[in-house]
Amino acid sequence: MTDTPDPIRPEARAPRGFADRRGPEVAQERRIVRQVSEVYERWGFEALETGAFEYADALGKFLPDADRPNEGVFALQDDDEQWMALRYDHTAPLARFAAQSWETLPKPYRRYAFGPVWRNEKPGPGRFREFVQCDADTVGSDRPEADAEIIAMACEGLQAAGLAEGQAVVRVSNRKLFDGLFEAGGITDPIQRLTALRAIDKFDRLGWEGVAQLLGEGRLDDSGDYTKGANLPLGVASTIEAFLGSASEGTRAETLDAIARSGGLGAAGEAALEELAGIDRALTAMRVDQVTVRFDPTIVRGLEYYTGAVFEAELLLDTTDDKGRPVRFGSIGGGGRYDDLVARFTGQSTPATGFSFGVSRLASALRAAGRAGEVARGPVVVIVFSQDDMQSYLDAVSELRAAGIAAELYLGRAGMKAQMKYADRRNAPAAVMLGGDEIAAGQVTIKDLDAGRAAAAGLADNEAWKAARPGQQTVARADLVSTIRAIIEASSTI
User: What global pTM score does this model have?
Assistant: First the structure.
């Protein structure tokens, strides 16, 4: 007799950077999207949904340069041999859509979008390969007021998402400042410029020492990964160091004065200062204070397509990991002006500006700050005693649902004690019990699980409250819905 080999079973595991989310986390992200969307719509932005895939050549900085264009994105080849990639953000799809639909769109075109995006990058704390972003953009306006409006709306949106005043700051700069510095230093190679900008974008995390390495030959990080540097001349790197040191903790106007005094900005830099001054005037007119939005010349943003004003939202909340150790989330969103992105399709310059924040990242940060939000309310659970009475159970759960009350019939095979434990774990407001005696008498027994939780938490020490709210009661079967509704309404007041 031949022994049958054990079947090969795959290890149950999620790919790195792809998170499973249960009810409370899903509810929190949906709440953030809903509340931020309400802000965007109040500011006059319309919703737009685009597909998960875009052709790889539409993704801007991720043009295919190898047999498989998977640098930074997840790509596949369609049956017509064209490469497609899961969208990296919502901005590139917007540019493609605007170019495709420009003749039929109101101009300027104001839209917001939310949904998952995918990045083939190294995951880390609060940084995922699949996550939800929420964007708002204006296409077709070159006014500094358009940038200021996006910034002000982003501040209101982050507050709607759950951040109180002082828990985030939006830092603003302009990419043209560095264009002027590069021109003055004779740096004309676009790849060298982009490498330098990506290095400067890490200033808040690496400090000058780390940035200096990336502006030079390169840097080896703690994990052993080596990043090739920009190889800038020492004189240019020194000028950048002095420029970054011009950041002011004063007002926006004072920061602009400090930048202007640093010198060597050239025509592009002078134009940047004028644009930033226009943004400041509009922000001041909209009563956006100097603490919530600051000017900071160290902000450059890493993406290639930014052409002017850039902004980055930084989380100021104290956050910890699951072991209580401090963890820094830093940037939770950003954006800027990208006047050349639509032109990649049309050949005609089309000004655009926008802001995006990571919903999943912000939700993760709020949880790390002990701000998980409201506990998701579970359904009323109808307990099952006997298969013979299944019709009565199904009638009860159907009646509750028809009345707009979330309800479920327990469909396992455990006894009553386990079913009650199940209802508690589901965070059910109540459990409905229809035993043989209740059914015969035309009655129903209802256990108020919320009352039990409140008492256990010390919230129900008021004798009058406890007397008015029994933990368990038997009522007429016809009063099932009204009794459950009273329990749920009372729960919202404790």
Answer: 0.80
